[in-house]
## 1
Amino acid sequence: MKFIVTGGAGFIGNNIVRQLLKQNHTPIVIDNLYRGKIESISSLDVEFHKVDIQDFDQLRNILKNSEGIFHEAALTDVQESFTKQQEYNDVNVKGTENIFKIAKEFDLKVVYASSSSVYGNPKKIPITENSERNPINPYGKTKLDDEFLAEKYSKDNVSIIGLRYFNVYGEGQTGSYAGVITKFLNRLKEKKSPIIFGTGTQIRDFIFVEDVALANIVAMQSNIKNGFFNIGTGITTSIQQLAKIMIEISGLKLEPQYEKALNGDVQSSQADMSLTESILKWKYSMELKNGLAKFFI
Ligand SMILES: NC(=O)c1ccc[n+]([C@@H]2O[C@H](COP(=O)([O-])OP(=O)(O)OC[C@H]3O[C@@H](n4cnc5c(N)ncnc54)[C@H](O)[C@@H]3O)[C@@H](O)[C@H]2O)c1
């Protein structure tokens, strides 16, 4: 089938494109290359449009001939979002509304990237989908505004599924989005100690990018029309543990360094996966150690 992938030159979008090709679908990529890399698509046999999702008319022209939309394009840097709030709002919220509007006009299903950042600092873990949404940074706030829009358009009979990704890792991550694994990896490649911000007791639910790509396709093909679903593993790893595992894989004799905690960094994040597993019928398949070993050089 002919599917649009916005942000298809970026980390997760590009993995969706590759999975779609493997499954003999026809992906059409939209990306303004703000962060995405042209090389990630020029090597593939796909139609590419260098278009900004804020450009409604161009977007409409491309989307109208498709059979569904995977919407991944966004500004994704939590720290940058504090200083560029207007820009984050324009791209992440207004851009997303453009997608929903066009989907409504042409009756297209949308599967889009929400984020665990909508939960902020949860009162309780693991986090279920009906937990309070209380983002603690402007980036997370844009993702929550997208969810309000998704709810509004869903009431209008548009089929929209929001996938709340937890911490995604894998080959090709730009390092902009809470990319702690990429940052550790880059330090280790230079034979330097990974830097931990804060105490390192922060816990995360790391999910492999290929699993995320497959979750998107499962959601697109399922009979479920609407809703938000956690996309994680349900398993937690502390940042200290992560540093230890990565140092071990590298074979280097190093200890992590510690620096001041980052602004807007959540303390604990762990997905409750029951709803996704029972309703969407998707579960992760890659264990963290194996996933890391796959792209660790
Ligand atoms: N990586 C994670 O851990 C994670 C976690 C939760 C949610 N998400 C969400 O998943 C999606 C994909 O994230 P990613 O990690 O692949 O980030 P990324 O930065 O690698 O990819 C985003 C892509 O969108 C493109 N883009 C940005 N602004 C655009 C615009 N105005 N018009 C067209 N294209 C534009 C960029 O060039 C880039 O290729 C985002 O919506 C992000 O918020 C990511």
Note: Residues 7, 9-13, 31-36, 52-54, 72-76, 91, 95, 113, 115, 165, 167-168, 174, 176-178 surround nicotinamide-adenine-dinucleotide (CB under 6 Å).
## 2
Amino acid sequence: MQVVIIGGGPSGAAAALMLLDAQIPVTIVEQKPFPRFRPGETLHPGVEPLLTRLGVAHQLQSAGYVRHLGVWSGWGGAMQFVPYGTDTNGPWRGYQAIRADFDQRLLGSARSRGAQILAGKVSGVLLNASHEVAGVMTSDGPVRATYVIDCSGGAHTLARQLHIPIVWYSPQLVARFGYVSGRFDGPTPSICADQYGWTWIAEVAPNCFQWTRVTEAQNRPDSAWRPQGLRGFEGEPSRGADVTWRIAKSLAGPGYFLAGDSAAVLDPSSSHGVLRAIMSGMMAAHLAVRHLCDGADAQDCAAAYQDWLTSWFQHDVETMNSAYRKVNLFGFYG
Ligand SMILES: Cc1cc2nc3c(=O)[nH]c(=O)nc-3n(C[C@H](O)[C@H](O)[C@H](O)COP(=O)(O)OP(=O)(O)OC[C@H]3O[C@@H](n4cnc5c(N)ncnc54)[C@H](O)[C@@H]3O)c2cc1C
């Protein structure tokens, strides 16, 4: 019995750590050498209890990432500070995690607890005689598995292989993003909406700023564009990403689960992508363990996962829909 995970990002590492906890052998197939670049530094404070459950909270605490208490929002009105919240232990604080470092730490923990990391690309899926997913084809040959958890990100590797439709919930949205160095005195992290989209600026390391601009495809800024206040700063060329809201129609089935961006993508306005990736990786692994170790019915486990992740996605879609209606953006009019 073994589980194969496609991709070693936050969802893949979280799934692996849960499975290893239950003594289930895990192979992670990852196409890129780590550390590898990935945008998305702002971690919601909600990741902390998840990482504690996975036994890797020290990865966050010892890394020295910049902390913040909330977000400055200029969303349809004057700029105001929106705190994350507070409890009896004090205010909640998010992290500006350098993703290449954060992801490498998580994958390193999975490796040191026994996950086999296979350097290679998944190019196909293996099916058994009953048409259940039974492994993957990699650049190094076939790898058989009792379950495959697809954590390959927005490329939706398994959904494409299994011809699972991807359902869109927004017009085509694109992100342009980059990093600059310099002195910027505006409040950060901040998000501001205008008539064509929104702009995010966060100080991810002292005097190093990550910016993201999200628009509809036809309003995509050119590659030289920078947010006001950061123009003239030194920086690498910007990059682009498709952040159209979308979800795979089937999120689990015979022999497989989809987790993280591979299951569902929303634009990064709420900075929940990594939280959703870690939590869905954990939930997929938990349900695989329920079936493999506790004898739970596989179909029930798949249905429970489908319901759980679909309702989370739908809830976020409604919340974001109403936020965009407030500022008449992207065709979501009030
Ligand atoms: C511009 C931008 C800004 C963002 N900002 C934030 C933010 O501030 N906060 C936040 O929480 N989220 C943010 N996000 C979202 C966040 O980056 C993602 O939600 C998160 O990375 C998803 O994690 P994952 O593990 O599902 O996938 P990924 O992190 O994408 O990891 C997938 C891994 O799978 C590997 N892989 C892919 N295909 C294959 C294959 N065929 N074979 C083998 N390996 C494969 C890839 O190499 C990669 O390492 C942002 C996204 C964008 C585009």
Note: The pocket of flavin-adenine dinucleotide is lined by residues 6-12, 29-32, 36, 38-43, 121-122, 151-153, 155, 157, 175, 177, 212, 241, 243, 260-262, 268, 271-275, 277 (CB under 6 Å).
